Amino acid sequence: MTGIPIFQVDAFTRQAFGGNPAAVCILHQPMNDQWMQNVAGEMNLSETAFLLKEQGGFNLRWFTPKVEVDLCGHATLASAHVLWEQEYVAAEDTVHFQTLSGRLSAARKGDWIELDFPLEPPEEAQAPARMIEVLGVQPKFVGRNRFAFLVEVETEEEVRSLKPDFRLLEKITDQCVMVTAPAESAEYDFVSRFFAPAGGIDEDPVTGSAHCCLGPFWAAKLGKKEMVAFQASARGGVVRLRLGEQRVFLSGQAVTVLRGELIVN
Fold first, then answer.
1. Is 92 a catalytic residue?
2. Intra-chain end-to-end CA distance of the chain, in Å
3. Residues 161-173: tens digit of each pLDDT
4. Which residues, including other chains, have CB under 8 Å from residue 110's CB and lie 6 or more apart?
5. Cα–Cα dist 91/113, whole Å
6. What domains does the chain contain, in order, with CATH numbers?
7. 3 state DSSP class of 168
8. Catalytic residue among 42, 47, 68, 92
9. pTM of this prediction?
10. Which contiguous run of DSSP H or E holds residue 239?
11. Looking at the DSSP assignment, which residues form a beta bridge with residue 8?
């Protein structure tokens, strides 16, 4: 029997049991897609990340309990955290990942980890029939990018009070849906929530990839290149944003809550 190191990390939080939990699996060799999907189902977290050392960095893939995804922020943050914490890479080194969304990187910035991700701005779009009704909001704007719909509403309270019917939302669209509004507190620039029932995650606690869309959207509205966001799920999490040319830099913190190994016969 061979043991494969696996970790559970709470990302976009400084305290255990907050933020968004992700599993991080350090592979010794390539594994087939079905095995990785089975492991993700077993972990039953919003994402399980699989890392394989390669020249110049690591190959990185992300799976929900149901499907592989093209981009995931919190599991990338968790992966970088594990690589530094377990000394797979030196503390001062930038970590590079090859992914389905191209080359990504992570760098340590004091107590924070900064991710270099692609900008994924929304374009104005028509919402699918009944989606707005299921959300129960009066939208100011509806847009979408290649991953998700973005729905802007008037107030933070509207975002926090959302109680969508996830089974009906899953039938209406196979796309993810983010809902956002300006923050009431001066501590943050905007708030959001993120729903992905078609991908096996009714509500994602803190979604790094969503901020690749939310970042440019709110930067244009607020006239700011640097912002602080709060994702207002039950667990909650803080994301710092810095916009560059065709890139968005997402910063967060992370805490390891579990270490173990997968047994492969």
1. no
2. 5
3. 999 999 999 999 9
4. none
5. 11
6. 2-118+251-264 (3.10.310.10), 123-243 (3.10.310.10)
7. helix
8. 47
9. 0.94
10. strand 237-243
11. 23, 258
